[in-house]
Amino acid sequence: MNILYYADFVNLSTNLVGMDKALNQLSVPLGQLREEVLSLRSAVNEVIQAIDTQLSKQDDIQKKKISVLRLIHVVRSVEKIEKILHSQNAKDTTSLESSSPLLAGQILERIATEFNQLQFHAVQSKGMPLLDKVRPRIAGITAMLQQSLEGLLIQGLQTSNVDIVRHCLRTYATIDKTRDAEALVGQVLVKPYMDQVITEQFVKSSPNGLQLMYAKLLEFVPHHCRLLREVTGGTISSDKADIVPGYDFLVNSVWPEIIKGVEGRIPFLFNPGNPDAFYERYCISMDFVRKFERQCGSQASVKRLRAHASYQSFHNKWNLPVYFQLRYKEIAACLENAITEGLGAAPVGSRYRLQVTEVLWSCVCRCWAEHIYLPPLAHRFWKLTLQLLSRYAAFLTEVLTKTPPPESTKDPVRPLPSSASSTSSRTSQDADSESGGPTALSTKQLVFIAADVDHLQEQVLEVLVVIIVYNRMTQHLTERSVRFLKNASEVPRLYRRTNKEVPTRASAYMDNALRPLHQLVTDSTGVVKDSIIQQWLRVTLSDCTHRYFETISDVLSSVKKMEESLKRLKQARKTATTSTAGANTGPSDDSKIRLQLALDVEYLGEQIQKMGLQPSDIPMFSSLLDLVQEARDLATAEQAGS
């Protein structure tokens, strides 16, 4: 193999003979070819540059053409709107002012659609000289449109004409002025009512004047906002096909006017100078807020309400820290006065031996008393409770450490002294002159101190244990019950396209949800006080009802959406299938679902009564019942119509 390679290497020089001459012969044609390629490349570049120039000109022309077309659209839209409004010929008998309200609403809706296109093209044509000339006419159209809308919306509300109101609100939404419509409703519809009801004279006219005022404010929504809520989908009975979305009049129109009136015309409401009156006014006001939240059509509306600036402003107006300081002074002063009296005997029949211990426990109980304690101040009252116990402990420590032992006195058995050595100068004056020191404690006093401390320790631990057990018990019951109440979301699946009969009794999940509560009553009766059992049930049912309300609300909303989707599908098809479905005169699946949910809630109310409570004891139950009753009425009306 190596020999072959060597032979090739030796012959290499022989094989290359004449190669340079051959290469020289190729150089000339290759040079010519190179010149031709460069020439062609130059020609192609010139053509490309010419094409780019033409394309740039064409693109510029196209842009100018689009700008011209936009300006043409602007001018045509302005002329079209002006023609409809007859702004230049007020004597025309077909003018907007001479049209019927319903026709005017339809015309305004047409104008709004055209105006929306006008606004779009005007924004795209920004900076064009012709647009500046047309802009005053656009401003005139805008003013005329808003003025006409305001007048027509007010007329529709005053005459309760749902078609006019729907056209107006849809028009406001088309031109992206929903906030203007809500502000108008607030000024025209809400404010006059609030000016009459929210007055200082009304509140002071009777002892329960504040409650009466809030009651009248709550009446405003069902009596005066029914039409608006029906059009904007704030009620279950609203027809989704005709709903105008994007509005929340309760949050953006009613609530701000209420708060503006309360804060502006009843400022004494927030004055914490009198703690008892402040407590009553605060509790009544917070109850009003909870009831107003229940009038909101959905959980999303409640969230918008709580995020509203006026909602935060109203809560911040209540100076709870000042109220607590006043209560702090009252409670702390009471204990300090008792400490000043020293180791005086407690009244006959007291659970303690010493007056100071009796007062201490009374102060601790006052921190959590019904007419003093407020939930937002829980952390402050808890701190005060610990401070009271700490002050009492410091007092006893001081008494025990600064008082000489009983052996230093000649008479170990003495009546209880009226003061302690740590709190008054009288102590030194009443001291045993023979000992020359502070008054000694008797054995009886030491026994009383020990007995009170022992009993107080038991009671404090009892309270802590009760609090922990209460929380654990209610949390345990709530978790077990809510797990089954969530099955309400499965009700639509049981009736949708299953041909099930009309429901006549509550769902099985309701018995499962209530079983832990009935078991609690059975296991606790005779073992725990009835008042404790009722408290457990009340707290648990309140939590469960609140979550159940959210579930039922979501189910009814989804049922309505599904119902509307099916309606639109049938209207779009217009086939024999639609006729066949319409021939069914029995209750629809949606009606069965609503009836089932109503039966479930009514059954819950019956079981609450069997447990020894009243449905009115459960804060959210009335709202839950109203929710399903409205659904039941809708189902009944549908059956009657079929």
From TrEMBL:
Transmembrane segments: none annotated. Residues 316-464, 470-601 form the COG complex component COG2 C-terminal domain. InterPro entries: COG2, COG_complex_COG2_C. GO terms for biological process: Golgi organization; intra-Golgi vesicle-mediated transport; protein transport. It comes from the Eukaryota. One of its GO terms (cellular component) is membrane. This is COG complex component COG2 C-terminal domain-containing protein. It comes from Astyanax mexicanus. The gene is cog2.
